[in-house]
Amino acid sequence: MSNESPLLAPPTKNLPSGSYSSENFSSEFFNCLISSETSNRFSLSDYFENVYRRDYDFCKSLPYLLSRREVSVTSPFSQEIAGLNAFCLLHTTKGAGKLYCDNAAHIHASYELTPGTLAFIDCRRHHRLVCQHNIWEYTICFVSSTISCYYHQKLENMGGCIFRLASDPDALLLWEQFLKKQSDDEVHGLMRARELLAFYTQLYLTRSMQLRGTQHIPSYIADMKRSFDTAYNEAYSLDALSAKYQVNKYRLCKEFSKYYEDTPLQYLNKVRIEKAKELLLHSDEKVGDIGQLVGIENTNHFIRLFKEKTGFTPLVYRRETPAL
User: Does the pTM exceed 0.90?
Assistant: First the structure.
């Protein structure tokens, strides 16, 4: 299947009741696979080199790991699936991929999976993964629907199921602890269940605090963000922003970071790079001209910043990114 092909309608499947066993999870995955495209370097069967037992008593009531794998794929790569009674935790470590699925409002959406991004995917729904650049490296864990469905629904209704783990050190630590428990026995299975439940809970608590915080954002902080989002091509400096809002620039940085994780200029650069990516893919403008269009006059600075944020130079990004 070509990466340009549209998503197919999800097939109707009879989902199995209860949990999977280690013997049949891979077969259930391939029964639910709609289409795929892989290279000689990677096969989807590699997902199941580490598959864990499911016949322990705790599996009836606690979330448990079905399989896990560190993956490295090259373009072209895609997989399209629906109806799999499991959830997927996908953490990108290098390169970039793209997730196509329906959001909480049942609107078809796409999400870019860049280094440090974790996607919490409901595999019962129709979705598609595509390698976005020449190489994409990620850790993928398939987990049971037990309890996972509760947290997924909660998180989705609170703003979606894409997370930046680098912005949540507590969640990142729990994720790393969860991955360390590799032995396939009851004790380690329980430990994984404990870490997974703690990980879900931390994501929920972080999202809850973020939502509460947005209700009390100072008006000047919100106005600054709106300016960055809509007038990103204009010139900004901390001194000018401080003078405009009559707020000390150190306080300004601290307050903005409190609500949006980055300092004002860091956030502005992220917006500019996202806009530059769109222009690189959907226009024939030269790299230097694109830098100026997004507000970065110095071409060398633009190229350096773009590579710092994406891992690729603008020309490589334009050449290697599939036209989706």
Answer: no
